[in-house]
Amino acid sequence: MAAAPPSYCFVAFPPCSKDGLVVFGKNSARPRDEVQEVVYFAAAEHDPGSKVECTYIEIEQVPKTHAVVLSRPSWLWGAEMGANEHGVCVANEAVVTREPASESEALLGMDLVRLGLERGATAKEALDVIVALLEEHGQGGNYFEDGSSCHTFQSAFLIVDRNEAWILETSGKYWAAEKITEGVKCICNQLSLTTKIDAEHPELRNYVKSQGWWNGDSDFNFSEVFSLADDHLACCSGRESLEKQGGDVSAQAMIDVLRDKDSGVCVDSESFLTTASIVSVLPQDPSFPCIHYFTGTPDPSRSIFKPFIFVDDVKLVPKVQSPSFGNDDPAKKIPRFQEKPDRRHELYKAHEWARSLLENDQDKGQKLMRIMLDLEKQGLEAMEDILSRTEILDPAEVVDLFYDCVDTELKFFK
């Protein structure tokens, strides 16, 4: 059975985080050569009876979808992580359970990330959307753009809004979830739910009894029941780093944890690389905007986090969007993935050049990195200023925010 890519997701609530902020972060570990793009989809209304084509299957569309910003492997429909206009953030983890994941094409965990964001105005609504779709359509299909082998996994999710978070873990259509309102939580590519379960599939316990995995006499421990051997042990050293911050977890503290290669949170192995990262800051006071920082490039220790704020008519950023191949895309043709097109976007190509400079000319590379980190620092300080103001944010001030940050980064690379 294939190992799940070792991604990490975090959330910190007051009093562990600063200034009444909920801070969310994820490193997305994926195959080393995979390109992630950052894409925005405006809120939309849909005709009755219309369908939506996900990565592998078509499902019923809903009357209205929320505006979303997503970081996604550019060959698929869903997303590894993202946010919506209502301050909901969702990230997913591939996990292995004692129940083999289905190779039959259904919804991917990444499709469920996007569907939860498009249809849920709170974390609990997004959870309800995901589990309902799981029940109706199931999960399955190749997690990777690989025509030679089918890599299948079950899914775990971290679903966060301004007030609460839910850890949702699944095996097939069965699931359990824990509600979080304080402290620091981390999920990775192993099951983490134990006996504290706040919501579950109505047939979950009957199902595991019928499989002989639980006798009904002992406490029901989701990880122990569904994990292979001791795979449910604590997996996340990054959580300790955040807890040591006391009450000072901020966007910068989360970024620092995501950049930490020594802890293993920033993945750079023979098979997998952190191909993109996100940090979101969600003020518990709804009069302040949520701010979402995306890298759009691999290896957060060599990337910069650029801010995005939801406003009407936000400017699209083609330079972080991969080329579209339409119906000729090998991911859409049957049999799938017989070719691998060049999906690199403009920022990805510029970042490749910068990585090469860092590896081959240390002095110039370090100088460039200092300039880029200073650019990132200016962005973080500008966003802190927005969150400390008493007056309401003028949307015109940030409509070009992410576009301008990407454009400035590209100018420095050139």
UniProtKB/TrEMBL annotation:
Pfam family, one: Peptidase_C69
Gene Ontology biological process terms, A to Z: proteolysis
The organism's place on the tree of life at top rank: Eukaryota
One GO MF term attached to the UniProt entry: cysteine-type exopeptidase activity
Family: Belongs to the peptidase C69 family. Secernin subfamily.
Protein name, per record: Secernin 1
Organism: Catharus ustulatus (Russet-backed thrush)
Name of the coding gene: SCRN1
